[in-house]
Design brief:
Blueprint: H1 3-39, H2 44-51, H3 55-62, H4 70-79, H5 84-87, H6 98-113, H7 118-136
Helix pairs in contact: 1-6, 2-3, 2-4
């Protein structure tokens, strides 16, 4: 497989992963809107009327099948009488972008090394292995006598 094809495949996979993350965010924000709405005892129709939207749109947002624009998010936040930050607040344990950074770093490494000669690759690999040993080594703690 040529390096250009490999690069295109990697970019496609990164974009696919990104789209999956966007879909997850859409679903989480929709669930958050539903949670706030129900806590306030409001119906989808109530929120839609206050936000100047169709109630079917609110339902689609809550199910995670429709994205709201930033303007739409502001309107829903105002309708629910909450800040935009509160509306889009995601759970603390949601690490949806954790893997994206790692994949993008690996893609950047692939781009950097793709045109290297064999000896340059071996030298680069040796450096990376030493860096990994250093990073993964347990830190030496300083004990104070006191």
């Amino acid at each position: 497989m040529s390096s250009k094809i490999l690069f295109c495949v990697l970019v496609f996979l990164a974009q696919l992963d990104y789209l999956n993350k966007v879909n997850e965010i859409t679903r989480l924000i929709g669930a958050r809107i539903r949670e706030i709405r129900k806590t306030q005892g409001l119906t989808q129709e109530d929120v839609a009327e206050k936000a100047g939207m169709d109630f079917t749109s609110i339902g689609a947002v809550e199910r995670g099948v429709r994205n709201l624009s930033l303007k739409g998010l502001f309107r829903v936040a105002k309708a629910l009488n909450v800040s935009l930050e509160e509306l889009v607040h995601l759970p603390q344990d949601t690490n949806i972008f954790l893997d994206k950074d790692k994949k993008m770093a690996m893609l950047r490494l692939e781009i950097l090394i793709k045109d290297m000669e064999t000896e340059e690759l071996k030298f680069t690999l040796e450096i990376i292995e030493r860096i990994c040993e250093y990073v993964k080594a347990p830190s030496k703690k300083i004990h104070s006598s006191g």
